[in-house]
Protein 1
Amino acid sequence: AEIDKSEAFANLRTLAIVAVVLGCIAIGAAAGTGVSISMSLAKPINKLTDAVNKFRGGNRESRANIHRGDELGVLANSFDGMAQELSALTTDLEKRVAERTAESEGRAKELARSNTELQQFAYVASHDLQEPLRMVQGYTQLNKEHLLVAICKALNITTHEHHDVVGIDKAALKTKIRALKTERDAAIEAGDHAKL
């Protein structure tokens, strides 16, 4: 019994069709599985990337919030922990800067008040230093004979009749007063209270 060619190849054709259908099903299943795995990886990666970009952009509250048991979950949890620590450190730093700024402003106000007081004191001291010179000039013009007596009176110095007038150098007195004013102004500008 010989088998007809068409009968012999009919089984082969059926087998080929079944193989092609099974191959297509296998390819479709593999593609579906690949897409499913790809989607399950891409979504958390995109979420983590978005959280990182927001954090980098200044949103210190941005977190990934990905809860998985694989490496992506570990990476997301590490990012969330780091973001939390950086937020706390930044908040603490901003608080310290605000406190120090307030302290500096307080010191600046105190220094300004102190400088104002020093300037007022310097003005009064300058006036007080020039007053004896004005008195000396006035006494000189009134009565040059009694100049030493007038100076001694102005400076509260006890005089005796045996003191002789040897002459007073008004230019030297003015120079000394100007030098004292210059030292005073430099001390005020430098904030050196000891020199005043």
Note: The two ends are 137 Å apart (CA to CA).
Protein 2
Amino acid sequence: AHKRGFIHRDIKPSNIILMKDLKVKLIDFGVACPPETDDFYIGGILHFNAPELFDDDASVQTDIYALGMTAYEMVTGGEIPFKEKKPGKLIKEIQKDRAKLIEEDRKDIPAEMIKFINKACMKDLEKRFTDMEEVLFALELLKRSYEGPSTTDNQGIGDMHITIPCTMENQDYILNEIATLKTKLAKVKSDLIINH
């Protein structure tokens, strides 16, 4: 949607469905709009709205925040990172307070998932993912952390290839993630050598 010039504005669990072929599909584009043509619509479930959305136009980063909140709710079993229940007070809490981040030492949630959610839900736009290419890269790393390194008869760990969409905006983030991935792969390779 973003590549086609639209902001969804209503990303939440009920608008994400799993297809029969196990592909994930985002539905309900009823309030979608091109960037900077926002009518200041505020979605029905307030905590999926990014802090800046209450005063400014919807953007790619407001959709990213909503995606992060969706993931937060999924991995915590329906918890939300805000205390207030009344709409007016909840809006003030979203605007003024940082969302309660998932603790990095939680053993029941994978570290890469915690890292993804916390970055997607940052109140500070400069600390949040800047675009969906950055999000997709982070999700690819997350997926690989679940799957482990891919090896076949003709492919060793050192031969793994990842296609990375790189822009000037996400270059530092990607280089940092590559360094992290290289460290993890070196450890896996070391473990394999020790175990053989």
Note: Confidence is low (pLDDT under 50) at residues 150-165.
Protein 3
Amino acid sequence: VPLLGTRMKNKATLPKWGFIFSGVLMVILFFVNPLDSWGVFIVLNMLLSGVSIGAMTMMYGMMPDCTEYGEHKTGIRAAGFISAFMTFLMKVGMAVGISGVGFILAATGFDATQPVQSDLTLGWINAIMNLLPGILSIISGLIFFGYKLDRKSYYQMLNEIESKKAWSQKKVGDMTNPVNFHWVFYVRPAWAQSNW
């Protein structure tokens, strides 16, 4: 994954195509009967695991970019908030997904005491394991087409942040000098004032 990441200009390339390819594989798995084609089933699952792990790994590499992007737009560096908020959203997603599985199984007549489930229940188990996640994965991949931050624009953004910091420090002056100390409390950079 790191080797692929260094060869791509945009960090979203791997998650974008990874999610789309994973979604397609899951939709195909929905139509594969493991009892009749167990070899195909195993190969597809191995491919799915490799592709989805690569896509998710790059997602964590993209989260710090949000910190720089937010600082570039607002002048506020909120790394802790962004990390905590993303973790919170992931936990909410897991909670909704797991509870949704329970609701669907209950609605389709799943009975844990029965050794054999009905065809309707088995069909829905297959759908919530393959078809529904596959469709959502494809949608997730399509959303990444809107991620325009590539390597060139990322470093340009970092340079602009550094130049704004340098300008701000020049405006504030030497904080050890009592004459300039009041600037720390009363002067905000002009580029940040319009965003408050």
Note: Residues 177-189 have pLDDT under 50 and may be disordered.
